[in-house]
Amino acid sequence: MHVYVRDTYGFLNLSSCTTSDLQINLDPSPSMIDDTAWDLIQSWLDTCIRTHKRCNEREQVVPDRLLQLDRASESFRLINKRELEPSVRYVTLTHCYNIDNQSLQLTQSTLEQLSSSQPLSTLPLAYRDAFSVISRLGLSYLWIDRLCVFQTDRTEPSRATDNNQLRDIFSNAFLGIATTGSTSPSSGLFATHHRRLITPTVLHIPVDDKGTMVPYMAKSEQQGEKVIDFWDEPLSKSAQAMNQRLLTPRMLHFGRSLIYWECHSAICDETHPKGRLNFPDFYFGLEGEKTQTGQELQTIWKPLLDVVFPAADPVDQVFVHWFALLERFALCSFSSPGERLARVAGLASEMGESLSQRGYNNTAYFAGMWKAMLPGGLLWNIRKDGHRPAGNNVPSWSWAAVEGPLVIQKVTPERANEGLICELVSANMSTPSFEQVTGISDGVVVLKGKLFSGKAAQNTTLPPSIGTIAETRWDLKSLATVGGSPIAFDAPNSMQGLNWTVVFDTKQDVTCDIFCFPIYMNLEKEQWHRIAGLVLSQLDDGRFARRGLWSIVVDSTEKALEIIDSVPNQDIEIV
């Protein structure tokens, strides 16, 4: 259906519906703190406790310190784990770290003060709201890093404790609370709904001459794919919060407009209280994580609201989920270049173990890349506004070398290595170094294949609406052989639809003279062939560095082979 608004129009993919069949709630509570909202939260929690086996698999581990709530006096105090039973249920708080250093925190000088009863009114609003949540749920113990971990002068206080301790704290929590819509603890948890903005739209459309009205909805809203609002929540941009979300068995998000639920077996929100359908074949509902055929998915990591991984094969599922997580991590903010690899190191270690358990043993890993994905997996790209941070000690061929919105082209080893016209000779990779995030700049990938020189030129026909994308998306005007008898291949007229394109990783990489190394060739549109590969620059020592991607489309097999066969194979080193 086309929708016209004044001088513009858009397109909606509609289907007939009944909200009862889709289990969509068109009348969410206007408040996050009324009885209707609390009843829904309690139902999510009760169902998870009763029916989700994986969500209830926790060890009897208690943090060194917890905050104990006293409902009668509306106060709290810091207690040592020696005062607690190992089976105690505690709740963690995940929040943004824009905190005034003058606010209350745990130090040697405040330990005695916090160990005695303190009024809740002394805390930032988000902390007080978190205590309200645990009180409403009948719980008594809350873990907040700033008040339970001795603070240092670091920006993110959770770094003050050992990573393994943090892992234990979050993975063994009974529940996690996330201040998803808040930029700082002073903002609080609870927002007032803007109902028209969060409720799916039902269009009643006449379908015959009698005026029979049939309800229609956009398919995206039926399936619960509308997670753009969640992407824009402040906490969704925190890499540290991403790690905590993955570790915490069940998490309750308080966004700017909606309350969300994440656990190992369900993804819900107030408009999809029974679960969200993410892509046609996968249902993340309170009944558990299943395909439409009813087959239960065996995932390594907890499904997240903004990370979708549609793959049924056990090994493919691991790789697809991994790359979906990488794309989300790439959108997060980091305090230092090395933090990007450090944040995914634990995930990589878990992935290697899981692949081995599933009978897949090609688990060499280095600088954020799996050897099984090479050479096809080198064809990642940055959607826009990429930049290479100063002091980033990462090989240029790794996605971790460039900051920006990441796109993984082909996300399983089988797909990544379809149609290859080059081969991997060697890669400086090692299996056990998942945690290695420094001293890796000498990582070398050696490929055997064809090397061309190319001429790029700025595309002056791109519309202004694409913004900064035009600064790095150029036209490839020609390819030529390197050395020997020069053979040049000129780009066809763009009106033919045979696009020759260069996409540089960053604005600093943009140049007219490039080297083009083809990775694969695929058949498209009957006789059309796409050849795609890496844009490289040559360093003083003769080795190469990645600068982006290139692709060309030609209209016949003969033309594709003429280009590929015009130069001999050679080994090149990419650092």
From TrEMBL:
Organism (species): Bionectria ochroleuca (Gliocladium roseum)
Protein name: Heterokaryon incompatibility domain-containing protein
Domain Heterokaryon incompatibility per the UniProt entry, residue ranges: 90-205
